[in-house]
Amino acid sequence: MVLADVTLTAATPQAKLPRALPDEIQPQKARFNGVGDLPSAPSDPDTPVLGCTMMAQATPIQAAMVRINVVAPCFTNERITVHHNGMMFTDATDENGMLAVDVPALSEHAIFILALANGKGAVAQAHVPTLAEFDRVALQWSGDGGFQIHAREYGASYGDQGHVWAGSMYSSFEADAGTGGFVTRLGDAGTLAPQLAEIYSFPTGAAQRQGTIALSVEAEVSELNCGRNMSAQVLKLGPEYVLQTSDLLLSVPDCDAVGDFLVLNNLVDDLKIAGR
Question: pTM for the complete prediction?
Fold first, then answer.
């Protein structure tokens, strides 16, 4: 609203005229809060300061995986939670505010949400058309559950070459060749309230022979989880990239059983490989 043609009228009797100013006014130094001279404005820096925006980039790589690169110069050694299609894990930036992690994609049009504890974050996207060539099962949990996902390919026994878990030597490059699957472990157990995940991937589209892959969820009894109830969740990538979920609540034996392994064979359906 703009006001115009407004005339002010006196509402009180005419005020006394102000006293005349002295003929000469002596200049005085300006004071800053009464304690000194007003400081001069700082000069512009020779080198501009890098902004505090958190940035993330997602790049498709081999074996239907995505490399996530995070740059957050104002958030060094900070906990980051990564969300992707129902899967979640926590990691941390380094002393330079950077993070690089390879994540198995769980959707062809993969979206990754990266969140800091203070609510700031970033979103990265990648197109992963090669996901159609892979079967993928993820296991995720919180804290010190000691969970593991194990695959025994084509009738392999524990300790055989076809026994695939996070400690085996299979790589994603071998998976591209169709020779076997691999397990990717995600998350930093050293973060506050860690969220961890393991993903088993098998290159079904490049498989050289038909057969069955037996999948199981296992948990090692440790000083950190003995005598407690532990929960986990299994995510299986179904047809049309629909994610099927199964929840698990496990009562871990007392600490007398430290070092033992609990094997849950019926939590995950076996994979049926047609082969070429």
Answer: 0.79
